[in-house]
Protein 1
Amino acid sequence: MARICVLGAGVAGLSSAVNIQSILPEADVAIIADQFNTETTSDGAAGNFGILLGRTNADICRLRCWTRDSFEWYHKICTSEDANIAGIHRTHGYQLWRTEQPPPFHGSFDYGYRILSKSELLKLPGNYKYGWELNTLMVECRRYLPWLMKRFKEKGGRVIRKQLKNIVEISGSYDVLVNCTGLGSRKLFDDKELVPIRGHTIRVKAPWIKTLFIADSDTYIYPGQDNVVLGGTRQRGEEKLDKDQRYYDDIMARCCRLVPSLKHAEVEKTWVGLRPWRPCVRLEVEMISVDDGRLPVVHNYGHGSDGVCISWECGVDAANLVKQQLTETGSQRLVSKL
């Protein structure tokens, strides 16, 4: 039986683990992580399905496939009986700009977009000169992560809470590792290209808000099932997780300029987290030397703020790389029954 370990229990790790179980149903799959569900960066993600090429440096052909196929996965859930349990629902609203912008990358794969007319823009807040009407969906990880974890456990997946300091601690226990540790890869795999992008959000109780708004790229209002997400910030290279009130005050002020009634919304939760960004998403195989041997590691991390959007298809690719490694490294017996 193939022994596979996924490192990390955020949306990338869980997506990889569930897909490995699908592709290799007889394998023994474990997740090792020191943070789960609400402890993860993924849990704090706003979850709106949208990608800006200016903040994503993945290969365009791969990014197109990841975006298209991930959206199809989310759409399938959105139209199923599990939609509310998994935290996935359709959204509608507007993205507004000061100047004309190229079409949204995700507009070719989600429910579509439409350029707003001058008369329509005049009826929207902020005196913006350009904008789109958006039809997309939202993935709320506070529901989606537990939903994925339930699927993983139902198929026999094992979960181990452990903070790894060195891969040597587990190297003899598994045939393939899948690295979804995000910023943890700086220490575990000496990745010097990873950069934290600090972000702040506020979750408020505002059930009257039904329309999403995005102003430029960093101010947003996303209506969710249980609350409304207000954001945000993108602070490159910042590592401190202190909840500095000035950032939340700024977010609230910007969002209230778009929707003044938010002034009366009750704040439910504030959040700060570090997005794991690198010049290019790392989804590849590395052979590492441990205990006088060679161990294949499938890397799947560095998605930055687009991790939720493309996580599912990245997980599919990671699972296929795992199967490929079990064959190419002389472990054909491990997959012979599959």
Protein 2
Amino acid sequence: MEAGTIASWKVKEGEPFAAGDSLAEIETDKATIDFEAQDDGIVAKILVEAGSKEINVGVPIVVTVEEEDDVAAFKDFVVEADSGSASASAAPSGEGLEEAVVAQTSEDAAPKVPKEHILMPSARHLSQSKGLDATGLKGTGKDGRVTKGDVIQALKDGVELPPLNVASTKAAAPEVGAAVASPSAPPSAAPPATVQPGEVSIPTITTSGTYTDITNNNMRKVIARRLTESKSSVPHFYSTVEIELDNILALRKKLAAKDIKVSVNDLIIRGSALALRDVPEINASYSKSGVKMSDSVDISVAVATPGGLITPIVPKTDTLGLLDISTKVKDLATRARDGKLSPEEYQGGSFCISNLGMFGINEFSAVINPPQAAILAVGGGVKKIVVNTPYVEDAEEQELPSVKSVMSARLSADRRVVDEATVALFLSALKCYLNKPELLLL
């Protein structure tokens, strides 16, 4: 965390507080956490109001004192910025200040570029198309150059600009005619018609429809930065396997009859944890010094929230049973949507699962969450005709094709950490566990 937003203050100036009390709610890039007091005290002065955004870590936000008599001393207290103090101490006073301002104004008013280059290309095109000379305008661009915005503002304000001197254009016309009339040119060629700048009209284009600009919150900014870094620096490769879900659905019905409710996603998390235990090379992360193998299987589960996607962690997933995983995931998902997760509950993890099957998505490709080495993208079950055994000619009995629910699971992996053969082993182990879901109960 480098910066945060003060969502609200829980105390007012002059109010006492005790150690452990929440002074304010701080909105980080992933959640809203309480800013707790370390000792007893009294709020003397709130330096940063609620709603202030992008407050860097280390910036003073509140003044607290131990004695109530000391509160009045900080009534008009203001934190002085280093840059402001330096400029205030260096600034002259009295007549010296006026002279300095006049000298600075004169220096700024004088363009630092030749007059023939005073116009920016866009400003030159606009002024010439209207037959006006804009070189006399005061430019706001770099080194005093006149920008297109300066010309547009001058036209809006009704500033009278002198007409453009076209003598040079007319003088160049005979040279063009002479060049066209040269022996190398076709006899029928004629000099092109010269269009005066004043005759060119710029059409006004009107657009229909409205739009609304939505400011990115801290979470959206972090997601954008991290995913851009992932796609631009991590060599992704993708492997897909189709897994039949009929046995899993049958197991869910049996458990539901005994008042044990687990979701398909819980079974997938349990199967993935066991597959990671069998193929630990996937349960790793990349660093500059090399590949780091994780001793613990900590699966991150992607949860959609109004502010963006967050991945709370189910620690030591391979040691948990189905009911424990189901309870843990429900609790993390609820607190994630309410913004009540603590940083240690979503930072880290050794593997990630993103399931869009409940939203009607059949298959998709997920972006790796560095430094993790892989992420599993799970789609929904689709009814398909499946041929279980190949056709054998002259056989007395042939197993008929059947309609089954088939799920697509696509693994996005970091090629710097794992190779294709290792991914194939992991997906094969995952398919084995989900095809025989009774193994998930052990």
